[in-house]
Design brief:
By secondary structure, the chain is mainly alpha-helical. Among the domains are: 43-115, no CATH class; 160-190, no CATH class. The chain contains 6 helices and 4 strands; from the N terminus they run ααααααββββ. The chain has a two-stranded antiparallel sheet. Bound molecules: zinc ion. The site of zinc ion has 8 residues, from loops.
């Protein structure tokens, strides 16, 4: 539980965003690591949160460009100080990096996810087919076994002696199989199984 918490903290968004500002490569690795930690449940969350963070960082730059191009002023307090601040271009660059990385991640995630899902669907279809074939074969084997035991039953039935009373002279004969001849009067006798 504790180990899990530490792992999740390491690849949490605040950590990724802060480390990424200084060492982008580590942020990329941590963002990818999220897929290992969270698996299928957070497929699109990672790129979308990074994209939103990137766009937020790019917002001042976007406003600056819009105001310069369309000649308007929103009257934001300390605006000139904000865009003149030495950190402003750094944050803008970082925002660009985050947005581009997030879009790439989004596309790759989308493509890979569909590819993996397609593969796993194909695989489960194959497996289903295999199990259906097996079930069919098992059914056939079961039927054969049943037929065989039925045949054996019939054979056993034919070998068992039956007591049959002769309809002509009334003598009780023991015959194997279903037909025979009376020992006393030689007339044909037949065994009928009771139903
Ligand atoms: Zn008889």
């Amino acid at each position: 539980m504790r180990k899990n918490f530490i792992t999740k903290a390491i690849c949490s968004f605040p950590v990724i965003l802060i480390i990424g500002y200084f060492v982008p490569a580590i942020a990329v690795i941590l963002a990818l690591f999220r897929y290992v930690v969270y698996g299928k449940t957070h497929f699109y969350r990672t790129p979308i949160v990074l994209l939103v963070a990137g766009l937020l960082l790019l917002l001042p730059r976007g406003l600056e460009l819009a105001m310069a191009n369309f000649n308007f002023n929103l009257g934001i307090p300390y605006w000139s100080e904000i865009i003149a601040h030495p950190l402003y271009p750094k944050f803008t660059d970082y925002g660009k990096f985050l947005a581009i990385f997030a879009i790439i991640l989004l596309v790759v995630t989308y493509v890979l996810r569909n590819f993996i899902e397609g593969l796993s669907n194909k695989f489960s279809q194959l497996m289903n087919g295999y199990y259906q074939d097996r079930a069919k074969r098992d059914d056939e084997i079961e039927k054969e076994v049943k037929l065989e035991s039925k045949i054996k039953e019939i054979e056993a039935e034919q070998k068992t002696p039956h007591a049959v009373k002769c309809p002509h002279c009334g003598k009780t004969n023991h015959i194997t199989g279903t037909t025979g001849r009376c020992k006393a009067c030689r007339s044909a006798i037949e065994y009928r199984a009771k139903k």
